[in-house]
Amino acid sequence: MKPPSAHARRGCIPWNGLLLAVSLLTFWNLPTTAHLTFESVPFNAAEGTDVLLLVHNVTGDLLGYGWYRGERVENNQLIASCRVYTQVNTPGPAHSGRGTIYPNGSLLIQTVTQNDTGYYTLLITKNDLQTERLAGQLRVYPVLPKPVITSNNSNPKELEDTVVLTCGPETPNTSHVWWINNQSLPNSTRLELSEDNRTLTLFHVTRNDTGPYMCETRNPVSVSRSDPFTLNVFYPVAQPSIEASNTTVTEHENTVVLTCRTNDTGISVSWFFSDQSLLLTEKMTLSPDNSTLSIDPVRREDAGDYWCEVSNPSSSSIGDPVTVVVLWRENGPALSMEVLTVIAIGVLVRVALVAALGFLFSSRGVEALVEKGGLHSLLGKGALLVPYFDTNAVTSSSGNPQDNPDLSEGQWPE
Question: Would strands 51-56 and 107-109 be described as parallel, antiparallel, or unpaired?
């Protein structure tokens, strides 16, 4: 039988006709016997799994098989041999205890390791002592662990520091991919990847570079992604402010709540009282983040200036102080309404007199006249002692009672 031939004709042969002719010729000229081959199943093996070096197209009368490590047939590299007639496996010098030859010549390697990676050679011996040799490759890859991102700078300063993020651990034959905010890395002159993509460099970080970041590792048998990693970028903090529930309170009756307000995150809060760090007493409590100070109940020694400071590793800022005034009652004889009225009129007259004298004398002279007139006022650090009339004398303080010793016991000046 002869293969079909194309009609002789001048001109170009149509493309589809040419394809048909090639197909027919290929079909007609197929070899009568297929070539001996073997393949790794699976093609890429994960460490710890079983791999079969599967042999195809074994024909003829065979005497036995031999498997060797490497690309050559060397006795010291013999893994195992098997005689077809007896079906007995005989281990060789390179046998690991994990290899078995099947009747069709295939080699099973159990629980492969990365050390099993490399070339293997199959030697087939026929009954006429003719041999046929075939070499192939086995590839074993580790199952990748979960990667972890590390940073060379845990507290970078905005626009000052450069940060290098590393995706670890380092494993061979592994590719790396980075993600920021669950998206691929943007094109930016401030971002730079190493040659193997394992490290990501951020130049002159900004507060917009916080992330989160993730890195992904890949090899032919596994893919693994890290946990999100957030970069804490510190920048100059703004001045805080204090919000007070009440700044004028009565001793043993009221509670004061002071809150340090700031829009900054990742900051620490500290409190100060009377020009020094606040020493907490049993009646003072701070919120877990130190932003709120509660005093319950308030006492006269709590009167004074309070302020808060916010800080991060790169900067700090102090807010304006808030003055707390504390009123308290002194035990003493009750005064009649008539006496209270006379006292009130006397105070008003003396205040009017001081105001009139203010136009004639210097402020120092006025203060001298005021002292001689018996009118006492406390003007220190913004504190003012204002009389409060009730059946008992009431004293107020803003933390400076020493400025007016005549009133320290709740007695009004005569």
Answer: antiparallel
